[in-house]
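WARN no homologs supplied; continuing
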Amino acid sequence: MDRFEAMSMLVTVIETGSFSAAGRSLKVPLATLSRKIADLESLLGTRLLVRTTRKLTLTDAGIAYVATARRILEQVEEAERQAAGEYITPKGELVITAPVQFGRLHVLPVVVDFLALFPEINVRLMLADRNIDLIDAHVDIAIRIGRLPDSSMVATQIGAVRTVVCASPALLDRGGVPQGPDDLLTRPCVTVDIPLPSPDWRFKAAGSAATFEVPVLPRLSVTTTEAAAQAAIHGVGVTRLLHYQVAEAVEAGALRIILDAFETDPVPVNLVHISRGQMPLKVRRFHDFAAPRLRDVLEKVATSVG
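OK structure emitted
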């Protein structure tokens, strides 16, 4: 039997959570997958998996074996990268992830220019407003907005972005300009329905580091930041978004930033990649190419009107 193939299949089964999902991922028939892992267990003389109708569970031997298998597969992948010349010549597929609107507005133009300079690199740009797991999704580099948890990832901060409250001039003319966050309790608001620790809007007390939350009641709730900005432009209500998401509308006078004295501290924006020793040249080239350009973009947003 091909022990390396079976080892790879076992790891995929564990990462995907089921034989059927692993079969789809590997494009291998379920019967073949089951037989390969059964052969591996026979070769080792021990059981690695316990299968029930509901879930898969690793045995103690399986836990130890999968941990070692992952290390071996990573070492082989690293050796293949070196043999293919990824550490000598920038080439191959580069997988990048970024938030949807930031990616469309600011990362995509950088990627287009990058591709023009490096004809042997192909890019897969994954835009999502959730943090994609870099290891599971085989992502090379990510643009992350927000404070990063402690991890083994390597991060390069390229700037910071404000969280702003804004409304259309017409709405403010009708109802007056809110003088404090509590005024939002009586104003129509547009919120973005995304998973957050709290749906309330956070503010900083004027002249203090202390923060507090206001439980706004949405007149309209949407699932994308672009929809929230458009609704605010049309006077539906006050919205709270990251500055880059409304910078153009503020610049054009379609939205006006309010309550800026109560803004929380700007959130960092980072380029993040996996710490795995020597960085493949394609990742290094993109990192060095993108960092100053995205830093300039964020500085321009920070100094724009509003």
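Residues 3-84 form a domain with the Arc Repressor Mutant, subunit A fold (CATH 1.10.10.10).
OK
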